[in-house]
Amino acid sequence: xxxxxxxxxxxxxxxxxxxxxxxxxxAHEIKIRMEAAGMCHSDHHLMTGGIPMAGFPILGGHxxxxxxxxxxxxxxxxxxxxxxxxxxxxxCGKCPSCRSGMANLCDMGAMLLQGEAVSDNTFRIHTTQxxxxxxxxxxxTFAPYMVVHEASxxxxxxxxxxxxxxLVGCGIPTGYGSSTRSGDVRPGEDVAIVGVGGVxxxxxQGAVISGARNVFAIDPVEWKREQAMKFGATKTFASIEEAxxxxxEITFGHMCHKVIVTVGEVHGKDVxxxxxxxxxxxxxxxxxxxxxxxxxxxxxxAMLTLLQKNLQGTIFGGANPKLDIPQLxxxxxxxxxxxxxxxxxxxxxxxxxxxxxxxxxGKNIRGVIRYTDEDH
Length: 376
Description:
Pfam families: ADH_N, ADH_zinc_N. The chain is α/β, with parallel strands linked by helices. It has helices spanning 41-48, 96-99, 162-167, 171-182, 198-209, 222-230, 240-250, 271-276, 301-306, 321-333, 352-360, and strands spanning 2-8, 16-22, 29-38, 58-59, 63-71, 83-86, 125-127, 134-135, 145-149, 153-156, 191-194, 215-218, 235-237, 256-261, 278-286, 310-313, 343-347, 366-370.
């Protein structure tokens, strides 16, 4: 079928809304009418080249929610009319990673940036000129319709607003899990959240819910620091340089048991400063993405050893998509997880460049594209 989508044709150029054609569902695939898409910083990394796809043009978007319109052969977990969230990491439930409890490292994720559908290794999205289109993590939520493998979708309760549901496909479980799973925040611990955008705000809530004693939010944008207090931060700082002496005083020199780094872009030169506010035996969780083409890191290896600190990477916050996405939404329904206030602004698809500029300008915790009948 023909629809439209936000495409990137080269690095450091704006998103372009173009007509595209998507294939029909094949075995184990479902077709979804999209209702909402989250505007995550990772899609901006596509524009800068920080996340290199296998080719151009690229169809962006990896957070989203919608309604199942059609199912392919062999699909048993979904029916037409089901409400679903797209998980940017598929979860097959059968590979060694899934079976060992690390569904966020599912083997099906190995080819997510190659553009070829996992069901038959073909390009399923094309431009009107017949060009192959590379969808972000084999999703491409910046389009009103999608055809995806059933392993990349999670059925949800129909009472959940679509704009809320969209964010649990990436940002919410990534941040929340960075604190609760990868960071394993325990009651009474002191925690620092470095960067309080969408992922950072979810990490902040995860630390608060886990019973952290002090939760320090560090972000250069004053408005974001003000918002962080509403989500449970106990004190905020504009920079690591400002935070370090104050944290030392508040914690009597022990520093933070857990430091969760959720900045928009990780630079190797900053790693040692984050480790500097991490306590002896503590853990610094790197959730934000660095450029895949960069490998230089500044780190005092002697202090890493002598103070027995841990530097922990995480993807998707260590989440199990099929388990954690419904669980997080149930917490939202019970008023335990505040997602509504994380949605700062909603945009039309043709406003996508403005939405990302607002993100870069520090105006949004999370922007959401909301599709309408005009899009469908």
